[in-house]
Amino acid sequence: MNIGQTTKIEQSEIRSMTHLCDMENGINMAQGLCDLDVPHEVLQGAQDALREGENFYSSSYGIPELRSEIATKQNTFHKLNIKQENVLVSTGATGAFYTTAKVILAPEDEVIVFEPYYGYHVSTLLSLGCKIKFIATSPPEYNINFNKLNDLISPHTKAILICNPSNPSGKVYTKKELETLGQIVTQYNLTLFSDEMYEHFIYDDTSFISALSIESLQESAVVVSGFSKIYSVTGWRVGYAITSKHVIEAASHVNDLIYLCPPTPLQYGVLQGLKKLPLAYYKNVAIDHQQKRDKLVKTLNEVGLKANSIKGAYYILADISKIKGDTTEEKAINLLKLTGVATVPGKAFYNNMGDLHLTRFCFSKKHEELDEACQRLKKFL
Ligand SMILES: Cc1ncc(COP(=O)(O)O)c(C=O)c1O
User: Fold this and answer.
1) What tens digit of pLDDT does each residue of 178-230 get?
2) Residues 128 and 87 grouped into a single domain
3) Last residue of one domain, picked from the residues 222, 245, 276
4) Which candidate, 315, 78, 115, 73, places its Cα nearest to that of 208?
């Protein structure tokens, strides 16, 4: 039997490393699960909904109260003016990106993506038949070369994609960078996809600025985000897209076709989280993760895996040049064998890594597990 287009979609490196980690009985710092406890309010909200009979299909836009509450939260946090009609609830940020990209982009359209990138973005675009043009950004700042970006734009370019804060680089876009992107997007009539999944994982004195708060991007940005990380419910599959009403309407039909709706009782669970969790919840998540970042960065530098103190998200791209192996894949596997700590080889985030030898550590782990990982790194390296 022939396998068609899907042969182009491969297992993600993250899943492969997780599999290897299980075989080695290692500490999994590869997968980007958030290791917080699920807030009581969120669990209770889902339990109540299950018992109260909210077990059926819901609207293909998501339940209205949740759409409205997402708009309220984003307006409060980022001083925006979003309405319920601008919000689509989908099966995770992954579904939100897929459904909106499907209605905005056509096969052969070009999309500009910055390296290092989040693999699912690239796989989603490829699954839609889009052509990707990559621009490399380099450690430690991962600055954008706007001249290069301008040069890459062709009549076929339809969108630019950013991940802010970035998985895997930890870059947090400045207002100036977003405004420059806004000028470019307006000049060439493009869409800016902005994945803001880690908006609350922000460290030191860094400010997070949503693409939707930039005037020139208000009509042309699609923000995707979700609850997987901030409420630690990656398996619930509830996320959202925020953009103009007509895109939301069209994307709701794709949502309906592919997913029907995100799980109804779980939408009620995150709704209660939005309604009941105080601002302090979000601040504490950032404080906790900042401590974890500091712990891991210190250890990595002590053992000679050079790492920078990132500003957002919860990943560190560390230099593993000193580990044996010809490729970052071999090096990451050797690191796992040597220390029992699994990471994702840098190759997963680059089209062309040049002479960088990076691997990605996820530090959203319980403190005890993170301590154990740090001890192993110190003992074996
Ligand atoms: C940048 C980014 N976007 C989206 C996702 C997936 O989000 P969801 O679970 O809501 O589909 C991840 C998960 O690692 C991510 O890192």
Assistant:
1) 999 999 999 999 999 999 999 999 999 999 999 999 999 999 999 999 999 99
2) yes
3) 276
4) 78
